[in-house]
Amino acid sequence: MKALMGYLAGLLFGLGLAISGMTDPARVLGFLDIAGAWDPTLMFVLGGAVLTTFIGYRLVWRRGAPLVGNAFRLPTRQDIDARLIAGSALFGIGWGLSGYCPGPAFASLGGLTTPLAAMLLAMLAGWFLARRLA
Amino acid sequence: MDWSASLHGLVGGILIGLSATWLMGSLGRIAGISGILSGLVFERPKGDSAWRLTFLLGLISGPLLVMALGGGLGNVVGEAGVDATGAVIGAPAGGVGLMIVAGLLVGLGTGIGSGCTSGHGVCGLSRLSARSLVATLTFLVMAMVTVYGVRHVVGGGA
Fold it and tell me: If you measure CA to CA, which chain B residue comes closest to A61?
């Protein structure tokens, strides 16, 4: 049951990325290039996703518990530390170089190219390193 | 302005929001891709791995389903049919060397910073988390600075 629910969530996410054009690095880089021919698409994607999730979360939280399991698992940390900022900054550089963040990179596996495979393997190596640094 | 692309973006964004809502309502989880994927690979938590695997399979099947429907719902910048994967999955922006550097930075950065565009950007902002707001602004600004540097300083403007 958990596996089926997970699949549905992933499928919706993948459909959203494909329909919005986020599986095309050129669209993402077009948004990030504020000094070029600016492409606002990503703003609509993030705006639509945040607004929907903001409302959706509040509706499902009213139930007090998820359909499976006994509690919502929410992040509890509230401190803004150097790791949060340094990590996010490094991620931003990688995102700006490639136009891929983890979701679209993985969702694009169906159109796998050698550069994308290299990126995904390097991403795994980066997570491994981050865990060693923890 | 390309309103069709913006509309595609809005519709896709709403689907991503429905996905995040569904994962929270069904399993009580945050839809953060870097956490779901790295957790599956490096921890394989008991009783908590199958849904991660099926989520990732669903993530891959989304674009494939759009392609199977003819690709007309896709929203890539290039003309339809120009690249091998049709109009749904775009071509990478650089070669293997650049992508290795980018991949290392994305993995290391999201690992240290506890999240990416989905976990901090979509789910964190929706929870009104100050940590996620700081993270999102940081990676957005750094990505914009990086693109500016690559395209307009090193590249000499394009």
Answer: B25
